Amino acid sequence: MAIHTSSFCEGFKEQYEIIAKSSDAIYIVIFLVNTVMSVIASLGNSLILNALRRCSCLHAPSKALLFSLALSDLGVGCIAQPLFVIHRLAALTRNYGIFCVSGIGSYFVGSTLVSASFVTSTAIAIDRYMALRLRLRYRVVVTTKRVAAVLFASWLASLIWSALWFWDKEVQNFLRIVLFSFCFVTTTSSYLIIYKQMRCYHFRVEEHVGSTVAHGAAGSHFNMLRFRRSVVSMCKIYCLLLACYLPYNCLMVLLNRFQLTSLTVALNAIFGTLVLSNSALNPFIFCRYIPEIRVMVKSTLSVLGSTQTNSD
Predict the structure, then answer these.
(1) Total number of domains in the chain
(2) Is the CB of residue 83 less than 8 Å from the CB of residue 102?
(3) How far apart are the first and last CA of the chain?
(4) Is residue 303 part of a domain?
(5) Could you list the residue range(s) of the whole structural domain that residue 79 is in?
(6) Residue 309 and residue 222: Cα distance in Å, rounded?
(7) Would 308 be classed as within a structural domain?
């Protein structure tokens, strides 16, 4: 077992030697940022998961998708980011053994959870597209069981993809490009199609304002407004996720082609922090743009506040 571990540590040895010769200032900042973000992600996503569990007004399959996204973010805050913090601390204290083991753990767990988040965001975009495309048939076609099967497959695929790192890093890196490209094209295309169709719908409604048809469309117009709100909130989550993930994935592709330097090692730590910090930012997007969740979170916080006051 020690032989296998030492072979995996070879990938971190060069990084460790470069960090040892570099200034500690940037790595101290990275350590502190990840410590704070880990706490925020853990508390924030715990509140979101509790809100989703209590909320009955959201469509069950859509709620399952949001639950999966929040669950992966909670895993990042509770497991992946603390391991990354230990990894950074070991670099600062010049403890190579802990640096290696925590590096392996944070990379494997983080890769699994982050890729699960990215695939789930793609599933959410497809779900919103199908809701617009199928309209009244949506609740018949998109069931909780089918969504659960999709989520199980996405988590399993993420786990297998992360495990490939132990077998062949080049294969994993190739699949990184394939997976990221597929999710990016699918998600972006889905939202662009939705945007185009919603604009067409808006123009049709304006043309019929004041007519009898407009009164008949009023109910659907209300539903479209609600749908538009859900699309906007999910699109913002996707844009934030993309902004956090894109720099790191581009860097990882380049690192396989070029030699490590003090700059690329520092960028790897910075962009890795950005990826993990996405999990701390998502709860704010959930609360800001999804009223049903915001109400539940406020209710939970008020209960916790009153309980604390009574105990004092």
Answers:
(1) 1
(2) yes
(3) 52
(4) no
(5) 2-298
(6) 41
(7) no
What DSSP character marks residue 283? H
Is residue 55 within 8 A of residue 63, CB to CB? The reply is yes
Return contacts of 66-69, CB within 8 angstroms, 24+ apart.
66/124, 66/286, 66/293, 68/116, 68/120, 68/151, 68/154, 68/155, 69/117, 69/120, 69/121, 69/124, 69/237, 69/282
Question: What distance in Å separates the CA atoms of residue 58 and residue 291, rounded to the nearest whole number?
Answer: 11
For position 213, which CATH number holds? Answer: 1.20.1070.10
- 53: which 2 tokens? 């569990």
pLDDT tens, position by position, for the chain (312 residues)? 344 555 677 778 888 888 888 888 999 999 999 999 999 999 999 999 999 998 888 889 999 999 999 999 999 999 999 999 999 999 999 999 999 999 999 999 999 999 999 999 999 999 999 988 888 788 889 999 999 999 999 999 999 999 998 888 888 888 988 999 999 999 999 999 999 888 776 555 544 544 443 444 444 444 677 788 889 999 999 999 999 999 998 888 887 777 788 898 999 999 999 999 999 999 999 999 998 899 999 988 888 877 766 665
On whether residue 311 sits in a domain, the answer given is no
- Count CB neighbours of 35 within 10 A: 15
C-alpha to C-alpha distance for 186 and 171, rounded to whole angstroms = 22
Determine, yes or no, domain membership for 305. Answer: no
